[in-house]
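Long-time lurker. I teach an intro course on protein structure, and each term I like to show students one example going from raw sequence to a predicted 3D structure in token notation. This year I'd like something fresh instead of my usual example. Would anyone be willing to generate the tokens for the chain below so I can use it in lecture? Attribution to the forum is fine with me.
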Amino acid sequence: MASRASAANRRHYEALAASPQAGSDELTNEQIQHRADLHWSSLTAEPGSVDYSEVTVAGRRALWIVPEGSRADQVLFYVHGGGFVGGSIYSHRKLVGHLASAAGTKGLLVSYPMSQTAKFPAQQQHVRDAYQGLLKTGCRAEGIVVGGDSAGVGALFGGLLLAKQSALPMPAAALSISGWVDFTQSGRSYQTNRERDAFFQKPTVDFLASLVLGGLDAREASPLFADLTGMPPTYLQVGEHEALLDDSVRFAEALKAAGVETRIDIFPEMLHSFQMMAGFAPEADDAIARFAGWMRPRLARSVPPER
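-- Reply from a regular --
Happy to contribute to a lecture. Here you go:
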């Protein structure tokens, strides 16, 4: 049974469903961004002993997240979600702080253009450029785990596919939280979880996709339908009750079919990106601990042997 604390995630999405959305004349782009930063981030407890430093990566704002005692040569490169209309390095800084602390790594939380100002493939291109920028600092690919949630997963894997085309080395591993990787919205869970999901109804997600796609074909833009050969080992987490459940299930199947080491965990009764409740809800803390336990041995392979 879901914990009482986890109900905060449902209340968040219920409030979001009842408020003006992107594309409405009632909200400016800045108001959408501020609302996400303020209300979404309030779901997450402040992680202790973590320092934050704002920097510029590939021409856009990013945030270094450095837990006390973290390894300098291991990085969690993270792409935030928000439907390509909201979310930021500020709304997700505490979540990445929890992830990085649990794994003993530094975190680099990057931003990308919102759909209000740029269409695909600008978002994926920026993720590739930011990843390439991290490599140019001397950080080895073997010491990098990449991660993202929701729309951030679509931008992340789009960026990794572009990185593969550019012959960049792949990271040690990838994390996916409630990934949105099918921009055609063809998953059956939009119907089977229609009464359970508090916000992500198919017309809503169709609308968000239309905002970011411009004239690009939705299937061509979707990582789900791409050639995933050569992608890094991937661990996906998703909530049982979310409308985007099938995005993760089908993506896991597609990764496995491409020969990629893949793990997927479906968390009973949870909704979209429930890991944002880290520090407050036991389900979120369990999910973070599972991610960290999976990451550590893969990053350990990046440590040079002692001479």
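Some talking points for your students: The chain has a mean pLDDT of 94. The longest strand covers residues 50-57.
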